[in-house]
Structure formats: structure tokens, C-alpha cells
Amino acid sequence: MTGYIIRRIGQSIIVLLGVTLLTFLLSHIIPGGAARAALGPRATPLQIQQFNQINGYNLALWDQFYQYVRGLLLHLNLGYSYKNNQSVLSLIQERLPKTLVLVGISTVLAVVIAIPLGVLQVVRRNRPIDYTLTGLAFIFYAMPPFLLGTLLIMYFAVDLKWFSVSAPQASSVGGILADPRALVLPVVTLAAITVAQFSRYMRSSMMEAMTEDYVRTARAKGAGRWRVLFLHALRNALIPIITLLGLSLPNIVGGALITETVFNYPGMGLLTTQAALNTDVPLLLGTTFVATLAVVAGSFIADLLYAVVDPRVRYA
Questions:
Q1: What pTM value is reported for the model?
Q2: Contacts for 129-138 with beta carbons within 8 Å, 24 or more apart?
Q3: HSE of 247, CA atoms in CB hemisphere, 13 A
Q4: For residue 106, what are the contacts with CB-CB under 8 A and spacing of at least 6?
Q5: What interhelical angle do 249-263 and 88-123 show, nearest 10?
């Protein structure tokens, strides 16, 4: 197990460096470079030259990347946002907790709803409720987050006026949670698509578990239907969902980026969108690194939990 953890940490570091390098190279194909993006189209050649010398953009490309990675590893220096006149690290520290609140609440809500729905579909398999839930799952799974969010705003915020058009705009997590009415639509938008995905996997996993030998043995010993369902089949059917949580993290993070933009939610997603629109290269590099770190960490934790909950799995 220790050897596996060491190998996975090494693989995670390689992935982080690879994504950072790719983003770094893409940022250098911007017309005019980072200097033109920071100073604007009216900047003179002399101003651009001075900017490049001060910020090290006049160095060789490999040397720039080395200095960036060195500052990141030794000092956790993600650069400076010229557009926001603030360090990238401080901007991320302000926005990241808000995104964690949105993603955390929506993911927990999705799991709590998806597991019973998946079990219900197995219990009522090939019946109207199974077909109805399957159809709804396909609809929400195929629906883009921006479309679902816009439809929810038009109906529940504009027409019925039950909820706010925009998300909470507080500067702290406490302020965000203090306005639950404005938080409902962003959470529902992000959770609905996740529920559709998780419920389908739960249904498939539960159907597979119901055909296993241990289920037939429990039935042969006289165990009741609900005891077999919840104490035998459900426990083992939940194991793939743990892995799915880690593997679905990129989709959830990507959905949060779009959802935050639609609802003007002051989190990492909106910060990344604004950085892209403003061609804020240091901020784009920083937000991409944090998103990649979250995805790698989620996958790593899912692999470890898989071995913990399933005694049949052992990493040599």
C-alpha cells in the first residue's frame, strides 16, 4: 500500500507539471504576449520592453517556466494579477472557499438524491416510474449547465419570483450561507446534472449486485427482501460510487465554472472566466493549477477509499 501511495503521488506530480507546462505554453501564443495583455493595445514598444524586463518575460521560455515552477514550489508564488492589482494567491484564497461551498453542497445533495433514485429504479425495474426516471436522467445528463441555469432563472426567479436572479454576493463563506434563498438555484443547477449521472451508475451497480452469489445465498437462507436489498446488495453497490465521485470531480468543477458565470457567483469559476476575458495570464495559470490539483487529489482519494471500503482490493 505504501509503495502504491508513493507511485500515485509521483504520477500526480507529473500530471500537475504537465498541465502547468501546457497552460504556460498556451499563454505565450497570445498575440503581443503577456505584456500587451496587461498594458493594453496602446502600450508603446518601450513600455512593453520595460514590462518584459521587470517581470522576466525577456528570458528564454524554458527559463521562464523554471522560475515559475521554482517560485510555486518554494514560496507558493502563483504570480501577480495585473488586471486586479493583487497577487494570484490572495485572489484564489478569497474565491476558493466559496466554490468549495457550492461544489460541496451540490455534490452531497446529488449523492443523497441519486442513491435512493437508483435503488428505486431497481425495485421498480421495467415499470413506469423506472422509465420516467430514466428519461429524466437522460434529459438532465445531456443538458448543458448554462441552459439549465438560464431556464431555472427565467421560471423560478423571473416568472414566479421565488428565488433571486443572481447568487449571493457576500465576501465571506458565512455571508454566502446567510442567504440560502439566493443559493438555491446555483446549487440545483449543479446538482441536477450530477444526480442524473450518479443515479444511472447507481442503478447499474445495484442491478449487478442483485445477481451476485451472496445475494442468492442470503435469499436461500430466508433473508427478507428489504434485508437483502439494503444490508447485502446496497452496501456492495455503493463501492463503484466512491470511485465515481473522484472521477466525476472534473465534470463537477467544469460545471461549477459555467454555473458560477451564469449566476454571477463570486467563486473560482467566475474568477477563471473573468481572467480569460481579460487575458490575465498569471491568474489563468493559477486557477488552472488549482483546478488540476483538485482533480488529481479527488482521483487519488477515491483510489484510496476504494481499497478501504472493499477488502477484496489490495494494491501491491
A1: 0.80
A2: 133/199, 134/200, 136/196, 137/195, 137/196, 137/197, 137/199, 137/200, 138/196
A3: 10
A4: 186, 187, 190, 191, 194, 252, 256
A5: 110
**Are the beta carbons of 312 and 241 closer than 8 angstroms?**
no
pLDDT digits (tens, 9 = 90+) for 86-99: 888 899 888 888 88
Dig out the grid coordinates for 221 from the structure. Answer: 437462507
Please answer whether residues 212 and 237 qualify as being in contact, where contact means their C-beta atoms are separated by less than 8 angstroms: no
Angstrom distance (rounded) from CA 104 to CA 16: 23
Q: 114 is written with which cell numbers? A: 441519486
115, HSE (Cβ side, Cα atoms, 13 Å):
19
pLDDT at residue 316 is higher than 60: no
CATH class of the domain defined by 89-309 = mainly alpha
Question: How does pLDDT run across 30-51, given as a tens digit for each residue?
Answer: 766 777 777 777 878 888 888 8
Domains in the chain: boundaries: 2-88, 89-309
User: Bridge partners of 86?
Assistant: 81
